[in-house]
Write a structure and sequence with these properties.
By secondary structure, this protein is of the alpha+beta class. It is built from ten helices and eight strands. The chain has two domains: 137 residues, Immunoglobulin-like (Sandwich), CATH 2.60.40; 96 residues, Homeodomain-like (Arc Repressor Mutant, subunit A).
Length: 249
């Protein structure tokens, strides 16, 4: 994992004004973080992959942020700006052409995944665009329209069921696949198995609830934790800190 490459979790960074909007790609979000003073932040696991455009003193570069299993600290140099296209769980592998497990806890140049000459042309297009978010959307929209880019619907259905709290065995049964096959599908689509994805999605649900000002006990109940202590243990395990500190950040 390379420090300094944020993902959609950059909305949790300090410094600058973060903006975010819905993408024209199904389930995706476009976010941006402008150049400013050097700053640090914590990127939390959310089950997503991001296509990134980074600009700074060395010019611009297209990057990919893979799915995170735990939070990691990011240190962004002064004068560095980011634009990202955050793809929902299960959507990226068909568009990027690699299994999500190959990108787990990693940030890599897009040129490591696609032909360098092609990425160079795409980078020039993004750099010249008036709206870099739209340009990133165009890059993957063109890919989605190409042959072999159709996503397997099973992972998305699995993610939806897991997000609603269904046990892994129940998800496999509802999808008509065995637990082992579901695990293999999950590794390729999400970067980790269904149990880990369920924990990550539950964490995100807890954070959304906590940001509304609900007490921790109510947050735990709404997000599907056994109790407040269970919530605290999971937050610590996945983020390395406490819910209170996350909310303050």
């Amino acid at each position: 994992m390379t420090s300094g490459f944020p993902s959609g979790g950059a909305r949790r960074h300090t410094g600058g004004v973060h903006t975010e909007r819905r993408s024209r790609l199904p389930g995706a979000r476009v976010w941006s973080h402008p150049a400013g003073a050097a700053h640090e932040g914590l990127v939390l696991p959310d089950g997503c992959l991001d296509l990134l455009w980074r600009t700074g003193a060395g010019g611009g570069e297209l990057l990919v942020a893979g799915p995170d299993t735990t939070a990691h600290a990011v240190s962004t140099p002064a004068g560095t700006a980011w634009t990202g296209l955050r793809l929902p769980p299960g959507a990226a592998p068909a568009l990027l052409g690699v299994p999500a497990s190959a990108l787990r806890d990693a940030r890599v140049p897009l040129a490591d995944l696609w032909p360098a000459a092609r990425v160079r042309v795409l980078g020039e297009r993004v750099a010249a665009a008036a709206d870099t978010g739209r340009a990133l959307e165009a890059v993957l929209a063109e890919r989605a329209a190409g042959p072999g880019a159709a996503a397997d619907p099973l992972p998305r259905r699995a993610a939806a069921l897991l997000a609603r709290g269904h046990p892994v065995a129940d998800v496999a049964d509802r999808l008509g696949v065995g637990v082992r096959r579901l695990h293999r599908l999950s590794l390729a689509a999400f970067g980790y198995g269904p149990k880990v994805l369920a924990r990550v999605l539950r964490l995100q649900a807890a954070l959304r609830a906590a940001r509304t000002g609900l007490p921790a006990a109510e947050v735990a109940a709404l997000a599907g934790y056994a109790d407040q202590q269970h919530l605290a243990r999971e937050v610590r395990a996945l983020t390395g800190t406490t819910l209170t500190r996350l909310l303050r950040g």
